[in-house]
Amino acid sequence: MHRASCLHLLMAAIATWNAAYLQAAVGELRQRGEQIAEEYLPHITPLGWEHINLIGQYSFTNQSTYSLTNLRPLRLALMEGQVTDWIPSRE
């Protein structure tokens, strides 16, 4: 029972964190002049977790804490098309 509760809490934390970063990414793209239609936004899910290492070792210290109002910087290289190896092929 505790394991299921922990998994539920972990997924909620991931979805919340991803939603905050998706909002920041959309804002950054719009600031750069990208046209993002409002009707597309409800179809973007914050439930992705592929970018999170679920089996690693973590150190949670006060020096590395972030809040939803104080996010880490976006990885702008991905937005600028400099890194494309994460994009699945359409073959």
TrEMBL record:
Domain Tn3 transposase DDE, chain residue ranges per copy: 2-58
Origin superkingdom: Bacteria
BP GO terms, sorted: DNA transposition
GO molecular function, one term: transposase activity
Leader sequence segment: 1-19
Pfam families the record matches: DDE_Tnp_Tn3
Keywords: Signal
Name of the featured protein: Tn3 transposase DDE domain-containing protein
Organism name: Ktedonospora formicarum
